Amino acid sequence: MTITAAADGSALGNPGPAGWAWYVDDSCWDAGGWKHATNNQGELKAVLELFRATAHLDEDLLVLCDSQYVINSVTKWMRGWKAKGWRKADGKPVLNLELLQEIDAALAGRRYRFEWVKGHANHPLNEAADARARAVSEAYQRGGTIPKGPGFVRAGTPAVPASPAAPVAPVAPVAPVAAPAAGAASREQKPAVRRAVAAPPARAAHPELFSFDDDHDAAPAAAVHEVSLVLSAEQHARLSERATRLGVSVEDALRALI
């Protein structure tokens, strides 16, 4: 049988109060988080805890994920990073190293594949994971009780709790964005290989959108032009939400739309 689960992360302010969650159904899910972390850290931790919670099962795992960063890290970039001593093509250290190394260890011997799903598009499993991750981040923000799931629970299978949350390295503060001016406008055949992964969707529409942590040598820009833009409060809020979902800065999210 194939276990199908969604994994998602949330960070208010990115970085800020953060949560992670994986979800199979209402009786089989888990969540956790930190007082301060990034959205990408939440996304990675959700995948890590999903693999840990299902490690005792000899079944294929289908991971539904709305993060291109996570999918590319696991299916495309990780092997090259390891070969370079966990450094990127430009020689800089890989971000979120501890979480990535833990995921790499958790994948050993597992049969799995990733499938990208569009976030906030009414996909039931993704929406359920997103809601639980955000509930954790909001609980940390207001100092409330942290929501906790039952773990991996299925008929005849004992619950497997998530591992304790490891400390997350402090995240460098993000420069504030200037406020807008007042008044401005069934059992499946098991694969022969150890790992089976699905390639992420094509990036033709906005190739630069997903290159923020890629392991390739980017061509130098011919020129840089500085542009000032005034947004209404509503427009800035929508742009900030988009940047948080993508795990990039507000400036990068805006640049990707050009």
Automatic annotation (TrEMBL):
Its EC number is 3.1.26.4. InterPro entries: RNase_H (IPR050092), RNaseH-like_sf (IPR012337), RNaseH_domain (IPR002156), RNaseH_sf (IPR036397), RNaseHI (IPR022892). Its cofactor is Mg(2+). It catalyses: Endonucleolytic cleavage to 5'-phosphomonoester. The keyword Magnesium applies. Belongs to the RNase H family. PANTHER family: RIBONUCLEASE H1. This is ribonuclease H. The lineage of its organism: Bacteria, Bacillati, Actinomycetota, Actinomycetes, Micrococcales.
